[in-house]
Amino acid sequence: AQSVTQPDIHITVSEGASLELRCNYSYGATPYLFWYVQSPGQGLQLLLKYFSGDTLVQGIKGFEAEFKRSQSSFNLRKPSVHWSDAAEYFCAVLPLTGGGNKLTFGTGTQLKVEL
Amino acid sequence: KAGVTQTPRYLIKTRGQQVTLSCSPISGHRSVSWYQQTPGQGLQFLFEYFSETQRNKGNFPGRFSGRQFSNSRSEMNVSTLELGDSALYLCASSLDQGIGDTEAFFGQGTRLTVV
Fold first, then answer.
1. Three-state secondary structure string covering chain B
2. Which of B43, B56, B101 has the CB atom closest to A51's CB atom?
């Protein structure tokens, strides 16, 4: 079955430390890949996306993600976390075929930043 | 450019009632998708409308329905509300030019509480 897995439900890092959030997908063919961030009570904001080409993609707010086909992974990274990065992060996929904009989301990773 | 607007932001309804939520997409966007977000089930796709036609549908009961108007604005309706329908309902709009590179922009959501 097609699925998206975010193995870490909660992550706590110190401000200034590096961050890596994991995402694995299980699909027949490599789908389009996205990372979204959600602050409490708010909608989702797109951080970055991968469709094809360079496997290291740059996003907003200093985030980047690396697509690894062999591992079916699309991990999100940030070299130095700021307190304002505390939020919930969602990995999402969109199948290449089938048409439409039906996103499938992972369960999310709640990021806490210690000052 | 105005973002995706969802109204109302908050709603309290009684079991058995029905409710209608509204979503105004970004100007020029023809695709509107709806998602339900709950602590237990996470983000789940409800349905997508494109040019006034339902293009994709998630695994929700028939009590959940939607429509899209000629100006791309969309409404979703939930009839015979149950306690379990309490959730944050998110709307997303996409330009969707059919060339693959697509991106969903989310509204801030409508928080529905069923009592």
1. CCCCEEECCEEEECCCCCEEEEEECCCCCCEEEEEEEECCCEEEEEEEEECCEEEEECCCCCCEEEEECCCCCEEEEECCCCHHHCEEEEEEEECCCCCCCCCCEECCCEEEEEC
2. B101
